[in-house]
Amino acid sequence: AQSVSQHNHHVILSEAASLELGCNYSYGGTVNLFWYVQYPGQHLQLLLKYFSGDPLVKGIKGFEAEFIKSKFSFNLRKPSVQWSDTAEYFCAVNKGAGTALIFGKGTTLSVSS
Amino acid sequence: GAVVSQHPSRVICKSGTSVKIECRSLDFQATTMFWYRQFPKQSLMLMATSNEGSKATYEQGVEKDKFLINHASLTLSTLTVTSAHPEDSSFYICSARDHTDFYNEQFFGPGTRLTVL
Q1: Strand, helix or coil at A94?
Q2: Phi/psi at B87 (5° precision)
Q3: Nearest Cα to A97, choosing from B37, B107, B48, B106?
Q4: Please, are residues A24 and A4 in contact by the beta-carbon 8 Å criterion?
Q5: Do the chains contact at A98 and B95, CB–CB below 8 Å?
Q6: Is B62 helix (H, G, I), strand (E, B) or coil?
Q7: Average pLDDT across chain A, whole number
Q8: Which is nearest to B53 in space by CA: B25, B75, B37?
Q9: Digit-coded pLDDT (tens) for B27-45
């Protein structure tokens, strides 16, 4: 079955620490990859996306992600987190234009000041 | 930027009643909208894909007679939870795809919190 796995359920960091959240998917063939963030009480916002080209993509708020096709991975990184990054992070994939997103279970990031 | 709205944001209803949730794309046309359900502290689960002018495609395990979806225009899709029961209490989120967007981005609504008493 098609699935998206996020390895970390809850990550707790201090401000200025580096962040890496893991994401693996089980689709074959070409996929589009996304990271979304959901701040407390707010709706989902797109952090970054990968469709093709450079496997290292940069998103908003200093986040980046690297697509490693051989590992079916799309890990999210940020070199120095801030308290305001406290949120739920979701990795998602779809298989092409007009298709639904399949989400991972999400990772809760708590950043202490 | 593209904006998707949902109405209502919160609704409380009695068991056995029906509730309609609206999803609107405010500044773009959406041939395809998606309905998701999110349980507390869990991920979004796709319920159905709604295509303008045609029947929705439901995911396995989602009762189409219970969750009625209508996508009558390029800017509006509705989800009606019929004969709601407490187990239907959840957070319902829609997303819409701008059909002119080559890059396939979907935009999410703010969600509707349904509580069935």
Answers
A1: strand
A2: -70, -10
A3: B106
A4: yes
A5: no
A6: coil
A7: 92
A8: B75
A9: 888 888 999 999 877 789 9
